[in-house]
Amino acid sequence: MADTDKPLLIKRYASRRLYNTETSDYVTLDDIAGFIRDGREVQIIDLKSGDDLTRQYMLQIIAEHESRGENVLPISVLTDLVRSYTNHAQSVVPDFLAQSFEMLREGQTQMMENLGTINPLSSMPGFDAMKAQQEAFLQAMSSGWAANAAQTPPAQKTAAEESKPEATDDLSDIKKQLEALQAQLSKIGK
Q1: What confidence tens digit (pLDDT) does each residue in 33-66 have?
Q2: What does the DSSP assignment read for 13-80?
Q3: Are residues 96 and 184 in the same domain?
Q4: DSSP symbols for 117-135
Q5: Do 45 and 105 have their domain in common?
Q6: Residue 101 maps to a domain
Q7: Which domain holds residue 185?
Q8: In this structure, are residues 24 and 58 in contact, taking their beta carbons and an 8 Å threshold?
Q9: Is there a single domain that holds both residue 109 and residue 152?
């Protein structure tokens, strides 16, 4: 039985083949992407040098998805990322991205909880499947960013930043949008 609390160790051999140390077999990038989508943390190391290659392979997985037309990152975001490597924003960008995805994860989790408890559409056929798809999407989008957030120390907040009710405002906005969507759907159902 694999210990899912520890990252799955993948070793890269000199032949560039990737070896799953838990199952003692070779894996592909698609296999690794599947492990990550399933919520598993992955660490990829070079067998000879011991270098951690995880970031390099994560970027390669993202690039392959993007090249297949599974576009998640808008051109403007990619442009800003490229720019962040050439200026002083480089030190701020990782924290910003990690916090943004954490907010996305929390907001979507809250929205899904609200859909299940207060939504009259929850009895609609197919609702559970839609909810499961949303949760799977959230898990896939956020699992890689959670690892980065855990490795990066959180930014220090000033007293003024801590007193901002942003999360409350965002939740109120989400609730209002959800209510408007429910009203539209109930009109369609009549």
Answers
A1: 999 999 899 999 999 999 999 999 999 999 998 8
A2: -TT--EEETTTTEEE-HHHHHHHHHTT--EEEEETTT--B-HHHHHHHHHHHHHHTT---S-HHHHHH
A3: yes
A4: HH-GGGGSTTHHHHHHHHH
A5: no
A6: yes
A7: 88-189
A8: no
A9: yes
